[in-house]
Amino acid sequence: MTATGANPTIVLVGHGMVGQRFLEALAERGLTATHRVVVLCEEPRPAYDRVALTSYFSGKTPEDLSMTDMEFIKDHGIELYIGDPAETIDREAKKVTARSGLVVDYDVLVLATGSYPFVPPVPNKDAQGCFVYRTIEDLLAIEEYAKTKATTGAVVGGGLLGLEAAGALKGLGVEAHIVEFAPRLMPVQVDEGGGAALLRTIEDMGLSVHTGVGTQEIVVDESGAVTGMKLSDGSELATDMVVFSAGVRPRDQLARDCGLTVGERGGISVDEQCRTVSDPHVFAIGECALAADGRVYGLVAPGYEQAETAAATIAADEAAFTGADLSTKLKLLGVDVASFGDAHGATEDCLDVIYSDSRAGLYKKLVIGRDGTLLGGILVGDAEAYGTLKAFTGSVPPVSPESLVLPAGAGAPAQLGPSALPDEAIICSCNNVTKGTIRGAVTDHQCTTVPEVKKCTKAGTTCGSCVKVLGQLINAELEASGVEVDKGLCGCFSQTREELYEIVLALRINTYQDLLDRYGRENARGGDGCEICKPAVGSIIASLAPTIGASGYVLDGEQAALQDSNDHFLANLQKNGSYSVVPRIPGGEVTPEGLIVIGEIARDFGLYTKITGGQRIDMFGARVEQLPLIWARLVDAGFESGHAYGKALRTVKSCVGQTWCRYGVQDSVRMAIDLELRYRGLRSPHKLKSAVSGCQRECAEAQSKDFGVIATANGWNLYVGGNGGATPRHADLLAQDLSDAELIRLIDRFLMFYIRTADRLERTSTWLERIPGGLDHVRDVVVEDSLGICEELESLMAAHVANYRDEWAETINDPEKLSRFVSFVNAPDTPDPVVGFVPERDQIKPDLPLLSIGMRPTEDVLEGTAQR
Amino acid sequence: MTLAPETTDLKVQLKLADDWFTVCDLHQLVPGRGVAALLPDGRQVALFRDRRGELYAIDNRDPFGGAAVLSRGLTGTHQGRPFVASPLLKQRFDLRSGQCLDDETVLITTYEVRTA
Ligand code: SRM
Ligand SMILES: Cc1cc2nc3c(=O)[nH]c(=O)nc-3n(C[C@H](O)[C@H](O)[C@H](O)COP(=O)(O)OP(=O)(O)OC[C@H]3O[C@@H](n4cnc5c(N)ncnc54)[C@H](O)[C@@H]3O)c2cc1C
Ligand code: SF4
Ligand code: FES
């Protein structure tokens, strides 16, 4: 029965996501060794991650999206013909003919041709400026058009893909409209309430949504380019481009042409083995197939299952695809949307439990059966519970359903851990992995981390929505089996940061290698450490430098190798490989001359300038070799490093205070400057921020700082442990009505105690909440001196203050250090060509490299930051 | 404490096709840190040296972020495998094989490197 030569031939038509998974399944079953495998791929590139298509607009390159390892193709002897689609199939002769004229005889033919985007038959639908959203080529065309010809864009279709497309348009700087025929967004996945919550959030993002209206005609100008759209309610929407995203249709033309049975609404009819019902030698999988349960699945997970089924069947193993779950969890434009099970409540007699807060854009609905069985649900705005809820679907959850959707704080929210789940519960639906299998990975295969379990079970490797539950399960399993959860800093040290600090201070250890070789874990000694402990120990050494006899200059000797990448270049790395420069402006006070110098430097080097949230000026877009030139001029004008790159003191903000303000009761600017100059350069577990306000009106926002000072008629109040950022915390009052000297002494002690006892990357706010005894304990130690260490804390700070030197001044005066500030060691005068910029609002912004698809049109690329 | 062994005159070379391409003096590589080098065809290589003096060379481009910055990452050893962590989003890459330790589907080019 062999067609050519010795081995039977499998021909795969279509190299999309499902096609690639099919090839992997063939290889896993050893079929690539026993068969000749030929793949006809229509697109100009091998299989890529279509699900993640939109991430191209957040910087992923087509290369990053690729799912095809060419080594894999080569190693398994797969013949892959790129850009050569199948044109005809002769089932009688069992031959496929490709566009290039290539004819392949097959023994088994597998169709994985996917779908095509459906474009409604409206007049001018093919006009210039009309697009679809399916392939990388579509995206490139949309990007090109949006950049050169469009300021407004409309997306036809408010489903999953339509929203993604609209988000992409918005990201390209185009004002985006969504036109949806149904009365709500995402009509397939969510119900009316969910649609309302979604609508609100999406409109808040600046997208215009038109629901309940259809597109009747595309309006074009004389040149044939889109200028607008006529809608079914008689109105007209002005737009420069249109992206059709009104659903997909199975690509079954090839199958129709060769007489294979297709469904009434399209899709190649197959049985439970994914074999076409008309021809036992032909299979169909993925979005082009009409499965045995009468459905065409438009999601990747069922497609993968079909791929496995077809491969198993070809290998004469038993397998069947009888249908799949349509649960989805997506992050659309930053909004969580999930639906699972019987989301629309189609089951007879079922009841809904709904929690909705449209102000917060939240909507949660559970569908419950008469006997309390969880049947399905919809979550919009917060899909935290998706993993757990989905796994409980089909069973009666151990707590009341209301408590599963109520927000924390309302009533008694149930923290239903995954440990309550039965072993058969599916945790990863993309890869069909049960809780039992995951537990097995931990107990039988000694996996202890999420990456290990991913590798072992494939769970969590596709859409990633189950990873959180995965982590919880692994920890629960480890704890249950009595494994002590390691509190050590990292894989190299079993001590905490605090313990390492004590060791370094007590034994005066002043190199990292010495510490690692003497106190590291057995297998880490003599090694190179890791990216966690090197900067942490580097910071401890820097904080204690004068006391333990280390150099106070962070680029000296071994210390240079320990610093985080930013500290190593004394600047902050930006997304395109350029750097930002932040000179210190103590207390936010700056002279006109100072401003002029900064302005001149930024102008001469073509830098983007911005006032930061910390009362100073950031200059972005410097290449590494420009840093010393820029700093030479800044140092010359009396500026110092602002340590924007370091886990160190950042800024001490001030309000204008008593000097000018009619309410001020103390000189807050002077105090802010004093504090900033005192603690500048102090390396700490995390960054340190401060502020001083001249009265209780608090214009400097001191209570949101690690240490904040507010003036009173009698002196200063000191607040500690404040934080902005992701988890804001108001600072706590540590002491009142302090004199200048008392204030400074207390801050000295407080900071040194924090540096001594905090974990790596632990801000004062989290530290204060974590340490036993909390604020009271800290007050006992630093105000009452309950541990008798205050003298030592003060002298450690005094040593820091006395030894402070500006590290940029030091660097520009050291030729050996300067030689490191080049893009290339072998071409010190050549700038990194990957660092590019494009103009925006009269300044520059980074241009991300689009490697494999070539450079952007040259007219809008500025040549670096050349002096212009 | 001196970390650099006596290395004054040694050159670091990369294997390109069948020729050895001289990049820089060995002493320009600080143990535990990297440098970037430009190849004649415009590609960029990140070169590293560990504390034992072992040399490694990989492609300089971070495949996740797109910028050519891997030479500026922190190095270390993970289960005996030398690695560099990207300074952008911290993914780690095996310096010998180019394998990303945090995403097994990602592999970057490595180069043979020697001193002469
Ligand atoms: C430039 C600036 C934004 C601006 O344009 O205004 C900024 C920029 C960055 N911030 Fe910020 N933050 C800036 C003020 C703030 C503020 C406001 C303030 O300081 O008054 C906050 C909230 C206050 C606070 O920290 O408590 C702030 C909270 C954060 C956080 C969250 C910290 C937290 O505890 O949750 C991070 C992330 C981190 O540190 O882990 C962060 C991290 C960053 C990083 C370092 C992110 C990064 O790694 O690239 C950015 C570096 C920019 C650069 O390359 O220079 N930035 N950041 C501000 C610089 C102030 C300065 O002059 O030094
Ligand atoms: C923007 C976007 C976001 C998505 N998000 C999600 C998501 O979050 N979750 C989810 O589950 N799914 C999502 N999907 C759907 C998912 O991408 C598809 O379900 C999946 O790609 C289907 O795989 P497939 O191999 O069947 O089809 P495809 O990936 O479309 O592959 C079919 C391939 O066959 C080729 N082909 C067609 N005819 C021929 C021929 N005659 N000869 C040779 N080759 C041919 C096509 O060019 C194509 O490359 C998304 C889709 C898009 C477009
Ligand atoms: S905090 Fe008080 S002193 Fe400072 S500016 Fe505001 S009102 Fe004036
Ligand atoms: S559910 Fe998608 S990866 Fe697990």
Describe the structure.
The complex is a heterodimer of chains A (868) and B (116). Chain A has 868 residues and is an alpha/beta fold. Chain A has 28 helices and 38 strands. In chain A, helix 15 (497-507) runs parallel beside helix 17 (533-548). With 116 residues, chain B is mostly beta strands. Chain B has strands at residues 11-16, 19-25, 34-38, 44-49, 55-59, 74-78, 81-85, 92-94, 110-111, 113-115. In chain B, the strands form 3 sheets. In chain B, strands 3-4-5-9 form a 4-stranded antiparallel beta sheet, with no helix packed on it. In chain B, strands 2-1-10 form a 3-stranded antiparallel beta sheet, with no helix packed on it. A 3-stranded antiparallel beta sheet of chain B has the order 6-7-8, with no helix packed on it. The chains are: A alpha/beta (868), B mainly beta (116). Chains A and B meet through helix 18 and helix 19 of A and strand 3 and strand 6 of B. The structure holds siroheme, flavin-adenine dinucleotide, iron/sulfur cluster (SF4) and FE2/S2 (inorganic) cluster. Residues 572, 574, 580, 582, 610, 612-614, 616, 618, 644, 650-651, 687, 689, 723-726, 763 of chain A line the site of siroheme. Chain B: Keywords: 2Fe-2S, Iron, Iron-sulfur, Metal-binding, Nitrate assimilation, Oxidoreductase.
- Number of helical regions of chain B: 0
State the low-pLDDT regions of chain B, or none.
1-7
- Uncertain segments of chain A are 409-415, 850-868
Q: Structural class of the helix and strand makeup of chain A?
A: alpha/beta
Structure class of chain B:
mainly beta
Report the sheet with the most strands of chain B, covering strand number, pairing sense and barrel closure: 4 strands, antiparallel
Strand content of chain A: 15-25%
> Please, what is the average pLDDT of chain A?
88
Pfam families (chain A): Fer2_BFD, NIR_SIR, NIR_SIR_ferr, Pyr_redox_2, Rubredoxin_C
Family (chain A): Belongs to the nitrite and sulfite reductase 4Fe-4S domain family.
EC number (chain A): 1.8.7.1
Subunit structure (chain A): Homodimer which associates with NirD.
